[in-house]
Design brief:
The radius of gyration is 18 Å and the shape is globular. 34% of the residues lie in helices and 22% in strands. It starts with a strand and ends with a strand.
Amino acid sequence: MAMKSIFLFAPAETALGKKGPVGFAISLAKAYGAQLTIFTVALDVTTPERHTDTQAVALDLRSAAQAAGVECTLITEHSHVLGVHEVVAEHARLHDISVIGSQGSGLLNERMVAEYLMFESGRPVIVVPEAYDAPYQNGALGIAWDNTPAAARALGDAITLLGPEQVHFITIVGEKPLPTDMDNQALVQVVARRGVKADHINAALFGRTIGLALQQEAVAAGSHMLIMGAFGHSRLRSFILGSATADILQSSTMPTLFSH
């Protein structure tokens, strides 16, 4: 099942039509012939002198999508009975996949919404760096593999929705214990039954953060996107994230699909 409906959350203050999450979402929708729904609101409502014309931003984003031949629906209003993050998650549940950035400044920011989407939308989420300016490519995927249920879910979501021809399983050694009875070659063979070429890479941490190591190894293997399970739990309305999830959100250099 390829993607038919993509959801993009684009804060009015930071949304750019030609790069970052917006540009990536438009190119992703074009690649799969999917409909794109863009939810645009201003997040910085606590700074009186900073005013963003949300409607004008939304129309610019729709124009960018239409120029690329992508059918687009805009959402610019919502009930204030719920928080923005809750409303965004409700909308995201209706779509195959969500796209968002990870900009972290402000009392309410993209990163907070991204965290909420990962754990509360029930759908996979692609986090795209703000400065990322390459279009989506249906190339090889780097799979962060630690033999956990979340990693398996991410693998299944990626193969089902993106339909890659090749995946690189990437296991970082030295970050945490990885007890397993799984033969790596069996993993590769099972994925091959789905018509996907695969290999498995063991890489040492070498003093890097786990997030940096995964991204570097994914790029070195020729991957255009990193796929990984999202780890964490909510506590007092904030999220306690796993180390890899937190690292990627704080220092993302490539599009990363998270599943939980």
